[in-house]
Amino acid sequence: MPLTVLPATAFIDPFGHNRAAIEGIFRTVTHQILDYLTSAGSQVPLPQVESSLYQAIPEQPGEMAALLEPLQAIMAQSMNPAHPGYMGHMDPLPTTASLLGDWVAAALNNNMLSVEMSPALSRLEPLLMAEIAQLFGLGEKAGGLLVNGGTLANLQALTVARNVKLNCLQKGLAGQPAPVLFASEMAHTSVQKAAMLLGLGLDGVVLVPTNANAQMQPDALEALIQKSLQAGQHPFAVVATAGTTVTGNIDPLPEIHRIARDYNLWFHVDAAYGGAIAFSLTHRHRLQGIERADSVTFNPQKWLYVAKTCASVLFRDMALLHSHFRIAAPYMKAESQWTNLGEISVQGTRHTDVLKLWLSLQHLGKAGYAALIDASYDLAQIMVEHIRQRPNLVLASEPDMNLVCFRSCPENLSPEQWDAWNAHLQQVLLRETKVFLSLPVFRQQRWLKAVLLNPFTTAEQIAALFSQIDDQISG
User: Fold this and answer.
1) Pairwise CA distance, residues 86 & 100, whole Å
2) For residue 89, how far is the Cα from the chain centroid?
């Protein structure tokens, strides 16, 4: 079939022959995006999907203009994290620089597998990751990689931990005592997924009890390690969490590190969310102990407001990726000073996420991010004060970050009715105040969760939220 069947705008002609037509399309879509984002606050944070937008793959090519209307419908029915009332999850509105970075990355379509396939960007990523590792105090040998989400970051870190501590890169786990790792009962489910993929099974993750503030109990951790050793198992790693998904709490990192060191365990910190605190001079002390980690998961796509996806895994000693993980790609040219990143990553082909991260950091700087994080803490404190002023509301834990988890416990209802009441309250708040709070399960109960990320959320908006809660309880 001759290529004349293709639309004239199927590709951007590298000699510019269809520039005018492409420019018109870009201009239209740019206006659509700006119209959507600049009116996001007038919409709802979580719209209803009215009907399926799916259309079957056509037999013949179509005109680009016909695609622009479905694009607008998709935007109108999508999650709207730009709305100041979107508080339900760790999903921020994206920085302007990260939008531009993703656009340019898509245009370049480089492959972060190798230096040859991304000559400028494969040099940029390790330099930026090394600087970020220094923010966590991981030392001169530290560095990291960008990966497609925190789940892959945890998987990569625990794979290296397994290979280093169990010396199983070549021969695997055959004939070894049952390997186990330890994580808080509030740890992210990706830790269990990693254990499943690493051949440990779900039972290979020993869940450690937490205290009233959802933080790992060091004494319980040590007792479980000793019990594991007595059972003939082989402990090799402990995962601490800096920012649990439901309550936003931070495990006692110094104490957990001490225990990991005493038992020769790999110390991994899942700071996918809370790692951003390192940018705040006011609050970075909350991460004390992270500087002793062997590896860290950190997701700029959360509290650094970088467009998805943008996640990273950092290592205290990058040489371990070469000695205990690297698989050389013989079909790729080797560079003397720069590593083909696909050889040391759990992924081969990767999207160019470093560009939007680097641009965002250049645009906002350390001071800009510190201001954003400090403002988030201030809003969280305002919300906590509102909760404490109301005897019918209770906190799930004392917040360590800008995440507040609470529930309503009306006296006129029995405790058995409180879960249904909070689910009802969630929907009322979404409908009446345009505030979306999520409804996670925490210790077998339903709670309302607010993540105070959006820089356009105001104290007045939070006050209106609690005024509506008061009306519902009194009514």
Assistant:
1) 23
2) 10
Torsion of CA 73, 78, 84, 87, to 10 degrees: 160
**Of the residues 79, 99, 127, the one at which a domain ends:** 79
214 contacts 181 by C-beta, under 8 angstroms: no
Report yes or no on 99 lying in a domain.
no
- What total number of domains does the chain contain? 3
CATH of the domain at 462: 3.90.1150.170
At residue 328, the pLDDT reads: 85
CB 157 within 8 A of CB 313: yes
Q: Between the CA atoms of 7, 9, 10 and 16, what dihedral angle is there, to the nearest 10 degrees?
A: 130
Q: Tokens at residue 229, please? A: 């050793």
Which three-class secondary structure state does DSSP give residue 432?
helix
The rounded mean pLDDT for the chain is: 95
Residue range of the domain that includes 469: 365-474
pLDDT of 136 > 90? The answer is: yes
Query: Quick one: which of 374, 354, 412, 169 has its CA closest to 280?
Result: 374
The amino acid sitting at 467 is: S
| Predicted TM-score (pTM) of this structure | 0.95
What is the chain's alpha carbon radius of gyration, rounded to the nearest angstrom?
24
Q: Domain check: are 264 and 220 in the same one?
A: yes
Question: Shortest CA distance to 82 belongs to which of 58, 107, 99, 101?
Answer: 99
Q: How far apart are CA 152 and CA 145, in angstroms?
A: 11
Tokens in use for 115?
Answer: 């230096």
The answer to whether residue 232 sits within a structural domain is yes
Is the backbone peptide bond immediately before 9 cis, with ω within 30 degrees of 0?
Answer: no
Task: Examine the pLDDT at 438 and tell me if it is beyond 90.
Answer: yes
Q: Which two tokens stand for residue 141?
A: 């040998």
Indicate if 273 and 128 belong to the same structural domain: yes
Residues contacting 140, CB < 8 A, separation 6+: none
Structure confidence by residue, pLDDT tens digits, 163-187: 999 999 888 888 789 999 999 999 9
219 and 303 together in one domain: yes
Q: Is-contact 177 237, C-beta < 8 A?
A: no
Helix (H) or strand (E) holding 381: helix 354-388
Give the CB-side neighbour count of residue 352, counting CA atoms within 13 A. 28
Give the domain CATH number at 265: 3.40.640.10
Do 291 and 439 lie in a common domain? no
Give the residue carrying structure tokens 């994580």: 183
